[in-house]
Design goal:
By secondary structure, this protein is an alpha+beta fold. Among the domains are: about 200 residues, no CATH class; about 170 residues, no CATH class. The protein is built from 32 helices and 12 strands. It has a 5-stranded mixed beta sheet, with helices on both faces. Strand 4 and strand 5 form a beta hairpin. The C terminus is likely disordered. InterPro entries: Spore_V_R, SpoVR-like_C, SpoVR_N. It holds the Pfam family SpoVR_C. This is Stage V sporulation protein R.
């Protein structure tokens, strides 16, 4: 054990060069990450950081101990080793486990640099603290530390019962995702926090949702019907930020007085601090697939394609990535990376097809019969000098640089030659070992050609898969009169950076919902073998439901909309003119777990201090109908019934939902049936 510890510390001590060069390579590849501070921690420290969501200081609460115990057991039983954790901050802080091999350390460092780029450039991360407006950067570590200290002081205050502080935290954590995550924290706090239908449409426009996803997830008729129903029911615009509403209008039930009383100042302060933390962490939840896929993509390119992993480290690294991407269920690393790969390939294919359609004699109608795809693959292969950069090719690179070739970093080539010829010592900061770091002598344009996705063996059939509708659309909007006489001339004009440029554009503006909506295509589903499955009420088991792209997309959108959790809004703060709270489940065909809903209502009562109500819709099945469906091998229809669950602090009541209230939340024609924890296998 002692030898292992010493070996781990030796590896950790040798990471300075890898950290520095990974950051340099990331920037050469067009990334623009926050600076990252790296810390080496032991096994227990890593588990503590994971429990604290990547930070060292949080408020005192039992949830952290539970999270620590869960992670410790995962390690102990081989269910998931933590290699690193990185937080969204400027600078970002990344924690590496000292027991990692050097190959693993390099892998997580390249992975972290991509995460830091995503944090710095994705607009959804910019919503926190209005960073997208005034250009300021998050100081999350300081914010969380302040919150931790303040809440700890309340717990230590002799005039405040510690159990009361813990009870309040428990209540807020039960509804921590009931915020308006599509707005900045400041905007959600404004006087105009109630949104009318027009504002909802505006926010959907900002999300960039297609008509397809609008109908499936934010059905237009449902929105309009809900607005009309709200008006008929006398309901103001539902408040999406439930926590803020409870903060502003909630009370505390005083058992001795037998009634609701005003909260103490410390209670409101705790609620607001936890709400701010929910807004901070919202972007990470909204972009899990994009962010992890982005990091996996660039890690793979740097470690494998650009040989950042040494020859003796590559097998270890390949096993590392295979285990990460191969974990079962809805794997955000795998789904995200495959979607980024698909986006890059389709963008590059459009770039190549655009050039080929300008060749005399090639049209969208005869494209597949006229184009020699083997010839195209050969023409797209990178220049041998660019692809095979090493010491022996430095003189060729120098000649290309002298001719003004934009793919070559002339100054870096001069330093590499000086290093080769002994004019620079190998330990000189200006020295370049081109055999070890060939990317240093290339520019962004050179690296884009060196790693052009359609020239890679695994993607060589991608151009041939282009369908006529895509070609016709390209031809339809081809306004440029430029024409080529030969295919060679056309391919020579291909912009090798098109895919990467488009990926960075998407990285800036999308979240998981819009990312999946726009880029999960039929071609993607077919070639990556995705399908949906659902629970069969007739058979009493889960079964494959569909391999259609539209169905896969629907299920995934459902999984990621509102963090994959039921959408709950405040419909009335004075229900039935009795000061009761009326919450509504914005029903999309997926029923609530009534048992869990009741547990949450008990916690909401602690924040409201008066009776609380929850509207929802459930599907009821007649026993005879179930039996007939089972015999005939079909699914029962079921009947959707609106209900209102009421909790008064002592017990639950269930009421039929008034028709006008049922209309306010009822499902559209889109029915998602049941939702297992994971849609993909």
């Amino acid at each position: 054990m002692k030898d292992e510890r010493l070996d781990a510390r030796r590896i950790a001590a040798g990471l300075d060069e890898s950290v520095s060069e990974a950051a340099n390579l990331a920037r050469k590849l067009g990334l623009d990450p926050y600076p990252v501070n790296y810390w080496i921690v032991d096994h227990d420290e890593m588990n503590e950081l994971i429990a604290y969501s990547g930070f060292q200081d949080r408020y005192p609460h039992w949830r952290w101990g539970m999270a620590y115990d869960r992670q410790q057991k995962k390690d102990q039983f081989g269910m998931g080793k933590a290699f690193e954790i990185v937080n969204n901050d400027n600078p970002s802080h990344a924690f590496l486990q000292e027991s990692n091999t050097m190959a693993d350390q390099k892998a997580v460092i390249t992975h972290v640099e991509a995460h830091a780029d995503f944090f710095a450039n994705n607009s959804w991360f910019g919503l926190y603290s209005d960073r997208g407006v005034d250009g300021s950067d998050p100081d999350a570590a300081a914010m969380l530390e302040r919150h931790g200290e303040a809440i700890a002081q309340y717990m230590d205050d002799p005039d405040i019962e510690r159990t009361e502080v813990e009870r309040l935290i428990d209540a807020v954590l039960c509804i921590e995702d009931t915020i308006d995550q599509h707005r900045t924290l400041a905007a959600a706090d404004s006087d105009d926090a109630d949104h009318d239908l027009e504002d909802i449409h505006d926010r959907l426009d900002q999300l960039g949702l297609s008509e397809d996803v609008r109908q499936q997830v934010f059905d237009e008729e449902w929105l309009e019907a809900r607005a009309a129903a709200d008006e008929a029911a006398g309901i103001d615009d539902p408040r999406l930020d439930v926590i803020a509403f409870l903060r502003d209008h909630g009370k505390r039930f005083d058992a001795e007085a037998g009634k609701a009383v005003d909260r103490e100042e410390w209670e409101t302060d705790v609620i607001e601090r936890l709400r701010e933390e929910s807004y901070y962490f919202a972007a990470q939840k909204m972009t899990k697939v994009m962010n992890e896929g982005w990091a996996a993509y660039w890690e793979s390119l740097m470690m494998g394609d650009e040989r950042f992993a040494g020859t003796d480290e590559f097998i270890t690294y390949a096993d590392h990535q295979a285990r990460v991407l191969g974990s079962p269920g809805l794997n955000p690393y795998k789904l995200g990376k495959e979607l980024w790969d698909h986006l890059e390939n389709t963008t590059n294919r459009q770039e190549v097809a655009d050039k080929l359609l300008r060749v005399e004699g090639i049209t969208w109608r005869n494209f597949k019969e006229t184009v020699d795809f083997d010839e195209i693959a050969a023409l797209l292969a990178p220049d041998p000098v660019i692809a095979g950069v090493d010491t022996e090719r430095l003189d060729e690179l120098a000649e290309m640089a002298d001719e003004g070739d934009p793919r070559i970093d002339a100054e870096a080539v001069d330093r590499a030659i000086a290093t080769r010829d002994g004019e620079l010592d190998s330990d000189d900061p200006e020295a370049i070992d081109v055999d070890r770091y060939p990317w240093k002598v290339l520019t962004y344009e050179g690296l884009a050609e060196r790693h052009f996705s359609l020239a890679k063996r695994q993607n060589r059939g991608f151009i041939k898969r282009v369908d006529r509708s895509e070609l016709e659309q390209l031809a339809r909007y081809m306004f440029d009169d430029e024409k080529y006489v030969t295919v060679e001339e056309a391919i020579a004009d291909v912009d090798y950076s098109a895919g990467w440029d488009r990926m960075r554009e998407v990285r800036e503006s999308h979240n998981d919902v819009t990312f999946i909506d726009e880029f999960l295509t039929g071609e993607f589903v077919l070639h990556n073998n995705y399908f949906t499955y659902e629970y069969s009420h007739a058979g009493g088991e889960y079964r494959v439901a569909s391999t259609a792209a539209e169905d896969v997309k629907t299920k995934l959108l459902l999984q990621f909309t509102n963090f994959g959790k039921p959408s709950i809004a405040v419909y009335d703060g004075n229900f039935d003119n009795k000061g009761e709270l009326l919450l509504g489940h914005r029903y999309n065909g997926v029923a609530l777990d009534i048992g869990e809903a009741k547990d949450v209502l008990e916690r909401v009562f602690d924040l409201w201090g008066r009776p609380v109500n929850l509207m929802t819709i459930r599907t009821e099945y007649d026993d005879h109908e179930l039996e007939v469906a089972r015999r005939r091998g079909r699914e029962p229809e079921g009947t959707e019934v609106g209900i209102r669950i009421r909790f008064d602090g002592t017990g639950f009541e269930e009421h039929n939902l008034e028709p006008e209230l049922a209309d306010a939340i009822e499902a559209s024609e889109v029915d998602y049936d049941t939702k297992p924890d994971e849609w993909l296998a």
